[in-house]
Amino acid sequence: MSLDGQLGAFLERLPISSRAAARAETAHRGQTREVDGAPFMLHPYEVAMLLHVTGYGDAVLAVGLLHDVVENSAATLDDVRDAFGPQIAADVAALTEDEAIADYDERKAALRRAAEASREEVLAVFAADKVVKARELRLAAAGDRLSAREVACKRAHYEASLELLDRRLPDHPLTEALRFELAAQLVTPALAWLRPATAAPVSVT
Q1: Percent of the chain scoring above 70 in pLDDT
Q2: CA separation for the pair 177, 112 (Å, rounded)
């Protein structure tokens, strides 16, 4: 079920998510995360765990586990539809970037529009993904794995994502978790340059 038999233990009584985890493990086999070199599959497991502890059910966790398979593997939406049905396939589609859009900012803006137009459960997966990605950005900064331009572009996308979540999911635990992660970046020494020059020092006492 999981990378070492334990990461996916929380899926034990969730049949759809267990199948999704197995499918995602196959799709992402051999892939690693840019930020720390860990197996890529750690990312969808983290997204699914956030959804699980926030109270979402089996099908939503399955979307969280599958949200990158079309974008980052040879799997297609037809594959997802055949294995998990039209609703999960539609949800994954809403979370999949349009690779035909070459410009990074335009591609991310299109993704945000698709997510914002989707149902609440899809937005929750979107939010969980951004929480994990914002956390990964701190790891990347600490390991000096990204250029300053890459960091700034990613953070701008996460800030814009928070704005849409404030519109669609105000006061939601995952919206607040993303707000926290973005604030935490500003007290991370390697990312302190992100803080506006006019901003007061951030206290963490």
Answers
A1: 93
A2: 18
**Could you tell me the two tokens for 17?**
């998510």
Give the pLDDT score at 205.
Answer: 43
Question: Residues 54, 60, 62, 64: is their CA dihedral positive or negative?
Answer: negative
Quick check: 161 and 178 in contact, CB under 8 A?
A: yes
**Residues with Cβ within 8 Å of residue 95, at least 6 apart in sequence:** 63, 67, 111, 114, 115, 122, 125, 126, 129
- Cβ atoms < 10 Å from Cβ of 92: 27
Q: How far is CA 163 from CA 31, 123, 166, 169, 170, in A?
A: 31, 12, 5, 10, 10
162 near 182, Cβ under 8 Å?
yes
* pLDDT at 34 (0 to 100): 83
Strand, coil or helix: 106: helix
Q: What is the distance between the alpha carbons of residues 202 and 10, in angstroms, rounded to a whole number?
A: 36
